[in-house]
């Protein structure tokens, strides 16, 4: 007769409290809690547990059943009323800055028709795999796993899909195997179309961050995005003013090609928080194109993203997350 205490003692350093055992004659039944582990780690842990259990005298059969608790995740939508305002760059840097602040963050490139996150996060050419019929996000060197349509289609291929197909793709990205991630940053396409409506109806973000440049035309469209989320009952975390001021690299003089303070004034007028300004900086553009978002480093070009992430993190905490 095998001693259950002996089996438990053997598995303790391997499973770290994740294994519950039962011994009946020569058969050992093990329930393995794999909550928060990526698929490869789950497989490796089960293999180690099986091997250890088979090494116990008197055990001839080992049965292992995996179980996992559903991880409660906060969804943060990053949206804009129009394209060309730097929403994807803001999304990537916000996700990284939140991760550096201690959150377990995943990034969803929900811009189905114009995915740019694979380049921004430095994983172009890599394609995700599926495990148990769910996509497995790709790891990045910035500590933020990513899923994007850019990893599912050939480079340069047009994604000419109607609304239902785009909505289905979005669901696959959001409902993927995100492991231990407790916060997902969703880089939405510009505008107020099918993808935004699907996100609100099926996945319902906890809050939305709106990105705009300072000029009036961009703010008009940003107001439309804000109105969409408000009508759907999704809280607006705040408004970010992007491309706000350009410092000449030669003389240091600051100019404002897109105007100044428009987003802050609009936030006050609309009654939503103003989260901060991100400058129009060639260093941000260069680093982003190279797959090295500035928020991942300690240089001055990344400094503007940390205060924005701090305000978003504080907002999440006030909401109980």
Notable characteristics:
single chain; 321 residues; alpha/beta; seven-stranded parallel β-sheet; three-stranded mixed β-sheet; 10 helices
Distance between the termini: 48 Å
Please tell me how large the radius of gyration is: 23 Å
Q: Report the uncertain regions.
A: none
How many distinct helices? 10
Helix percent band: 25-40%
Task: Tell me the strand percentage band.
Answer: 15-25%
Elements, N to C (H/E):
HEEHEEHEHEEEHEHEHEEEHEHH
Strand order of the largest sheet: 8-5-9-4-10-11-14
- The multimeric state of the shown protein is single chain
Structural class: alpha/beta
Number of strands: 14
Q: Characterize the overall form.
A: elongated
Main sheet: strands, sense, barrel:
7 strands, parallel
Mean pLDDT across every amino acid position: 86
Short summary of the structure?
The chain has 321 residues and is an alpha/beta fold. Helix content is 36%, strand content 21%. A 7-stranded parallel beta sheet has the order 8-5-9-4-10-11-14, sandwiched between helices. The chain has a 3-stranded mixed beta sheet with strand order 1-2-3, with helices on one face. Strands 6-7 form a two-stranded antiparallel sheet.
Describe the structure.
This protein is an alpha/beta fold and 321 residues long. Helices cover 36% and strands 21% of the residues. The protein contains ten helices and 14 strands. The strands form four sheets. The chain has a seven-stranded parallel beta sheet, sandwiched between helices. It has a three-stranded mixed beta sheet with strand order 1-2-3, with helices on one face. The radius of gyration is 23 Å and the shape is elongated. The N and C termini lie far apart (48 Å).
